[in-house]
Amino acid sequence: MSQEDSSTMRALQVLENSSSSVRLQAALAVGTDPDPRYIDKLVERCAVEPEFYVREMLTWALTRHPSAMTVPKLIDALRSERAQARSQALHTLSKIGSRRAWPAITRALLTDTDDEVARSAWRAAVVLVPEGEERELAGVLATQLGRGERETQLSLSRALIALGEVIMPTLRAAMTLADPRARQHAIATERLFRDPDAGFAFAVEEAKRIVALGPAGQEG
């Protein structure tokens, strides 16, 4: 084994060290001096790495490698049964920003039963969506209105708002849904779109009031 190969092997082994700070430094080193031989291990570690800040460094390291080599590997990871593998692959694809990944952002991922996967898919989708397909994406995202707790709902609202004015017909339609949680979330998103400085908490409280008042409240 050459000295270069030996150095590469050591770097890959250190990514599995029991110390999170050592793993962090290893990911930093791999990203600082990219080598295609690192890609498989970086993707593999993203799926199992328990520490958030180490995962972020792994993602950064992947962005330092050629997208033509990383994107296909990350797309493969989207089919993993492990939720973290799907979530982190989506997160990394959003950071890379290659439109080649767009066809892999499926409806199944956008509606994934795991909240973290779905949230990562929403963020990736609004980054990667091709021009002219925003309205269709908004329609899929709108099926998730009312889902989860405050953090998940805020993520969805931010994703919708990032699509711009095109979301308004979709939101107006959602304001007539039978599900009060979805209706409330749609109203809160519309309020936040119109007044970003108001904050999501205020928009939610205002939406609750409007839903409680019924059609008369929506007129106001």
Concise description?
With 220 residues, this protein is mainly α. The protein is built from 14 helices and no strands. The mean pLDDT is 90.
List the helices and strands and how they pair.
Elements: H1 3-14, H2 20-32, H3 39-48, H4 52-63, H5 67-77, H6 83-96, H7 107-110, H8 115-128, H9 134-142, H10 150-162, H11 168-174, H12 180-194, H13 200-213, H14 215-219
Helix pairs in contact: 2-4, 3-4, 3-5, 3-6, 4-6, 5-6, 6-8, 8-10, 10-12, 11-12, 12-13
Please tell me about this protein's structure.
The protein is mainly alpha-helical. It is built from 14 helices and no strands. Helix 3 (39-48) runs antiparallel to helix 4, helix 3 packs parallel to helix 5 and helix 8 (115-128) runs parallel beside helix 10 (150-162). The model has no long low-confidence stretch (mean pLDDT 90).
| Largest β-sheet summary | none
Beta strand count: 0
Cα distance spanning the termini: 74 Å
Helix content: 55-70%
* SSE pattern, N- to C-terminal: HHHHHHHHHHHHHH
Question: If you compute it from the alpha carbons, what radius of gyration comes out, rounded to the nearest whole angstrom?
Answer: 20 Å
Strand content: under 5%
**Count of individual helical segments:** 14
Shape: elongated
Mean pLDDT: 90
Ranges with pLDDT <50 over ≥5 residues? none
**Strand-pairing-aware structural class:** mainly alpha
